[in-house]
Amino acid sequence: MFTNASNFTNDVDLTLAIIIGISLFFLIGLTVLMIYFMVRYHHTRNPKATDIHGSVKLEIIWTVIPTALVLVMFYYGWAGYTQMRTAPKDAMVVKATGRMWSWSFEYPNGKITDTLVVPKDKAVKLELFSPDVIHSLYIPAFRIKEDLVPGKPNWMWFIGQQEGSYSILCAEYCGDRHSYMTSKVDVIPSADFDKWYNDNSAPKEHAGLVLLKQNACTSCHSLDGNRLVGPSFKGLFERKSNVILEDESQKTIVADSAYIVESLIEPNKKVVESYSKGMMQSYKDKFTDEQLGQIIDYLKTIK
Questions:
Q1: This prediction's pTM
Q2: pLDDT band at 176 (very low <50, low <70, confident <90, very high)
Q3: What domains lie within the chain, and their CATH numbers?
């Protein structure tokens, strides 16, 4: 569908239409010629084989025309790619983090959200970061997609030209809950964005829950008792569990404050039985002592 959701939409759609059109031209043309030659030169019409001499004119035609069409596709593809890799200097920079299995967006004023909110008709540059595996930030309506490779800087930019809410997907398989790694872009009027951006009121949710969501903890650990990639947070505090130690021996532990902190810093040291090792990354130096206390306080509340 041809829309004007972003500054890239129409150009990408045009390029795709040109490539499909040229491909159909060759598909239909070659199919028609193939059928024609099968009928025209069937052995019943040509019982005796004859030599066919070359035609310089024909060879020039079937060399020049495909070359010209390929160059047309190259031109539109290169022009679109160049535009996508040339961000305006005044673009608003937002750090986009993809981790198993959620998105978070950090604004210049330190505000962090799980939904990307941008002003209409304003260039936005996303600095892409992944702390674990390869992800790919894909906004279908905007016709843009870029990979997030751990340890490799990357970025993308766009201008939201129509107000609305647009899906964000991960287009690179990144593990068990890859298909749940979704978010959205909300394009709102500039005045509404300024109001939202400068709103520093405290979040209504518990500070510990906010931290867990911002760091994708709730993507692997449910809050309602359901089994996901990791044990549920519901009833976790002071719960007894059998764990597998690094030497593959077993031990029964109580999930007290010390165990929770240890699990954040060295997640593979004591893995709850029936869950896989290596799924969780270390959060060492990620949380302050105060934030660790907020997380533990929150876990105490969900029985």
A1: 0.78
A2: confident
A3: 9-84 (no CATH), 92-197 (2.60.40.420), 207-301 (1.10.760.10)
